[in-house]
Specification:
The chain has 175 residues and is mainly alpha-helical. It contains 8 helices and 5 strands, in the order E-H-H-H-H-H-E-H-E-H-E-E-H. The chain has 2 domains: 2-11 and 76-173, HAD superfamily/HAD-like (Rossmann fold, 3-Layer(aba) Sandwich); 12-74, no CATH class.
Length: 175
């Protein structure tokens, strides 16, 4: 069972959403939108933050480092994800993380959340996603989080609103 790391097993939006505890709500919402589920480069996001809050270029450079490292420290492990992974293992599956991003960043996320102890291993690659599963002939479950599927060339085999639900779909499908 190949699983993604971003916003499934480790929630980026929930982590960014905690900014609402220290920022005005409109700024916290802006940050979540500007991050674009982690697709916005850290350099560009730092520049956008600098522009929004009037920061100088020196502050922006420090912000890039904080966006890379600080986010990991803020990730909140999800007990439901751990239970779902244990359920998958109990059903005979071997959970394995397949994710995009820098190796250092993704490994820090795995260790910080404890997912490194719940999976058999991981692969970090730029092409590891629903299309990668499709290309490998594997069924894919996309965590939609309220968003429509963005591509027209193909569709995922299944969609789910949470990682535990995605695991239940896979377990129900057998395989």
């Amino acid at each position: 069972m190949a699983i993604g790391l971003e916003d499934g097993s480790a929630s980026r939006n929930a982590t960014l959403g905690t900014a609402g505890a220290i920022w005005p709500s409109a700024d916290a919402q802006w940050l979540v939108a500007a991050d674009r589920d982690g697709l916005e480069s850290r350099e560009r996001l730092a520049a956008m933050l600098g522009e929004r809050f009037g920061l100088d270029s020196g502050a922006e450079a420090g912000l890039v480092a904080e966006l890379r490292g600080g986010l990991v420290r803020q990730i909140i492990p999800d007990a439901a994800v751990t239970r779902a992974l244990r359920d998958a293992r109990a059903a005979g599956w071997v959970p394995f993380v397949v994710t995009n991003g820098t190796e250092e960043q993704q490994e820090r996320k795995l260790r910080h959340t404890g997912l490194d102890r719940e999976v058999a291993g991981w692969v970090i690659s730029e092409g590891a996603d629903i299309s990668g599963a499709r290309d490998a002939g594997l069924p894919g479950v996309w965590l939609h989080r309220g968003r429509p599927w963005p591509l027209t060339a193909f569709r995922p085999d299944h969609t789910a609103d949470s990682f535990p639900r995605a695991v239940r779909i896979v377990l129900a499908a057998g395989g």
